[in-house]
Amino acid sequence: QVQLVESGGGLVQPGGSLRLSCAASGTMFRIYSMGWYRQAPGKQRELVALIPRDASAKYGDFVKGRFTITRDNAKNVVYLQMNSLEPDDTAVYYCNAQVKITPLTTKYSDYWGQGTQVTVSS
């Protein structure tokens, strides 16, 4: 089974920064994309950023250059550097990975972390 463990959430003042990390472990053949989604109370889960294995990163429209996603393929870790945080960024942030368990698996499956709370408030 695949496990995704997130870290780095917390409380930060408006304009501040946080760095989220997510490590994937378990039985895996290949990870295609890794990324972050978020869900605020009363809202749908939305894409923050994702980075495919061999392609450019994709960001949600609201990011506007404030966040940077990076990935360490050797360690199966994805990072999200968040700068210029705003109160509207307050949400639970979920790590996602699209994984093939074995070489014979025909398609990638989605796996999710348990989420880490990010609160932006003065």
Helix and strand arrangement:
Elements: E1 2-7, E2 10-12, E3 18-26, E4 30-39, E5 46-52, E6 58-59, E7 67-72, E8 77-82, E9 91-100, E10 109-112, E11 116-120
Parallel strand pairs: 2-11
Antiparallel strand pairs: 1-3, 3-8, 4-5, 4-9, 5-6, 7-8, 9-10, 9-11
Could you characterize the architecture of this molecule?
There is one protein chain. By secondary structure, this protein is mostly beta strands. It is built from no helices and 11 strands. The chain has strands spanning 2-7, 10-12, 18-26, 30-39, 46-52, 58-59, 67-72, 77-82, 91-100, 109-112, 116-120. The strands form 2 sheets. Strands 2, 4, 5, 6, 9, 10 and 11 form a 7-stranded mixed beta sheet that branches. Strand 5 (46-52) and strand 6 (58-59) form a beta hairpin. The model has no long low-confidence stretch (mean pLDDT 96).
- State the share of residues found in helices, binned by percent: under 10%
Return the average pLDDT rounded to an integer.
96
Largest sheet: 7 strands, mixed
Give the structural class.
Answer: mainly beta
Span of the ends, CA to CA:
40 Å
Query: Strand portion, in percent?
Result: over 45%
The best one-word shape is elongated
Instruction: Work out the number of β strands.
Output: 11
Compute the number of helices. 0
Radius of gyration: 14 Å
Sequence of secondary-structure elements: EEEEEEEEEEE
Low-confidence stretches at least 5 residues in length (pLDDT < 50)?
Answer: none
